[in-house]
Amino acid sequence: MKIAVSGLVALFAIGAGWTYYSKPWVYPVSIKDAGPTGTRIVTDGLFGNYFPSPDGKRAATILLVGGSEGGLGLHMTHLAKALQSAGYTVFHLSYWRAPSQPKRLEEIPIEYFEKALIWLKGQNAVDPERMAMAGWSRGSEATVLVAARNNGLKAIILGMPGSHVWPDFDWEAPWASKGTSGWSIDGKRLPAVSLENVPFTLDPATGAASALAETVKTPAAALPIAGVSIPVLMICGAKDNIW
């Protein structure tokens, strides 16, 4: 019996060690190529894929950012190319998990996205009078924060958006937060919802419900949507079990 128990303990230890070091919960980062219709942009600290309008002429332009997946993932790449096919100029911008970018979604400067808008205005296929920003999931937070500032945007699109600034995030330990913020402005972290009192659970819906209940405790973390004076399109899933 002692040998059997010892064997089970050893197997458990080996399994726990493998799980810790392999981290199967980590969402793999993807850096998709722009392909023949686009160009990889690595300039002035920016990292993304630029897709000019099909005819190369000035067109309505969209700055596109994804969410907590980071990098330049497949789904946002498909969306960028679909928008390009529809006649838009699109800049798919990465803000974390790409080469030379932060490994944590923590205090990402909102000025980084504004720098991308400035860069876009200098491109031949961009109509600076018809520029929008589209952000999905965590990227929707950045989009609202950018739009609340005076930067020439004419509209924003929010995919699966949240209502508040959420804290830092790291795929290495997605259940843990350092208690900081996902975003910063002028070098100062923005107020964020605290997850300190949210119990850990493997059920995303239950965890999200607990996290959303914490938003009332941090009114300063509410996104400044009231300060956005341009048209807003929100795209949400009726069966979204997170938001």
CATH class: Alpha Beta
Strand order of the largest sheet: 1-2-4-3-6-7-10
CATH evolutionary superfamily: Alpha/Beta hydrolase fold, catalytic domain
Question: What is the terminal separation in angstroms?
Answer: 49 Å
How much of the polypeptide forms β-strand, as a percent range? 15-25%
Number of domains: 1
Globally, the shape reads: globular
Order of secondary-structure elements? HEEEHEEHEHEEEHE
Q: Class by helix and strand content?
A: alpha/beta
* Average pLDDT metric: 91
Detailed description of the structure:
The chain has 243 residues and is an alpha/beta fold. It has one domain: Rossmann fold, CATH 3.40.50. Helices cover 27% and strands 21% of the residues. It has a 7-stranded mixed β-sheet with strand order 1-2-4-3-6-7-10, sandwiched between helices. The chain has a 3-stranded mixed β-sheet with strand order 5-8-9. The protein is globular. About 6% of the residues have low confidence.
